[in-house]
Write a structure and sequence with these properties.
Length: 307
């Protein structure tokens, strides 16, 4: 690797540089390697460490933003929470929510928590913790191949296939879904309904097979209020871009399409936090780990270069 910097050997930290103290960091990387409800193959427990390991090998000069993002900012890579990651979701999900609540209370408004999954079910307790600590209405932008709007799956309401139904029921201001190309019939009914929780929550879904990304940027931003939580299931990408996911779907978004969706949101809205989930590292290929790490770094860059 020509650009591997010899000083970046702290593999436990994002980018491989020295760890900023939690209290002084602009960004907090939190590994949440939970994998109990994934439906097809297991392996997302190795997601956070694969992203952090790959991040030490990405070029730190951002060719789009024309800057060394890391020099403009401070990053704290947090240890994995001391929770029982082997517990069933009915036990784990509430424990993660309590953990995130106490962590958020330690953070100031200008610090951004970036959670790395793990399976997608972790997003609900994180969003729920924000609702209780943040005390302001916010929207959720959801990038995914799957609508994740099932009431329950495999006997659990906390399955990764139900995460957006839990978030919808929790009463956020609005949910905007992008890249969806696999859903159950009941989920389609919820999407057609558009307004939920007695009209309090709006749900707007942009399907990958009918909507060209260029045309949706401004209505998408209009569907989000000022404060936004973003959840990115890596299977929103086409499997030719990110193959290492547990439930791949054909016809996904390309690298530039995902950035074209996220750029205006990250540069114009207030991002209260975001997560990147469902990386299921593959033996013999680092492509997906590397792209996920570059995505996280680019998103940090957008937040440091707001328009
Ligand atoms: Mn998915």
């Amino acid at each position: 690797m020509g650009f591997l910097k010899s000083s970046r050997y702290y593999m436990a930290n994002f980018l491989g540089y020295d760890n900023s103290p939690l209290s002084q960091a602009r960004f907090i990387i939190l590994p949440v390697p939970y994998d109990k409800t994934t439906s097809y193959i297991k392996g997302t427990t190795r997601g956070p460490s694969a992203i952090i390991r790959a991040s030490a090998n990405i070029e730190t000069y951002d060719e789009e933003l024309l800057c060394e993002t890391y020099k403009k900012t401070t990053i704290h890579t947090h240890p994995q929470p001391a929770l029982n990651f082997f517990a069933k979701p009915e036990k784990f999900i509430p424990s993660l929510k309590r953990y995130i609540k106490s962590l958020l209370k330690e953070l100031s408004d200008d610090q951004t928590l970036i959670s790395l999954g793990g399976e997608h079910s972790i997003s609900y307790p994180i969003v729920n913790a924000y609702q209780e600590v943040f005390k302001k209405e916010f929207s959720v932008l959801h990038l995914d191949a799957h609508s994740d709007l099932r009431e329950s799956f495999d006997g659990s309401i906390y399955s990764h296939a139900c995460v957006m139904k839990r978030i919808l029921d929790s009463g956020v201001k609005s949910i905007v879904q992008v890249g969806i190309r696999n859903l159950a019939e009941g989920c389609m009914r919820l999407i057609r309904q558009e307004r939920h929780n007695k009209g309090k929550t709006t749900l707007k879904t942009y399907f990958a097979h009918t909507q060209h990304i260029v045309g949706i940027q401004s209505p998408l931003c209009a569907g989000l209020c000022e404060d936004v939580y973003v959840t990115i299931d890596l299977d929103v990408f086409d499997p030719s871009v990110i193959p290492a996911v547990g439930t791949p779907e054909p016809g996904g978004l390309g690298w530039y399409e995902v950035l074209d969706i996220l750029r205006p949101v990250f540069q114009k809205k207030r991002i209260i936090g975001f997560d990147v989930v469902e990386l299921c590292p593959m033996k013999g290929s680092i492509v997906s780990d590397f792209i996920a790490a570059k995505l996280v770094y680019r998103l940090m860059g957008y937040l440091c270069n707001r328009r």
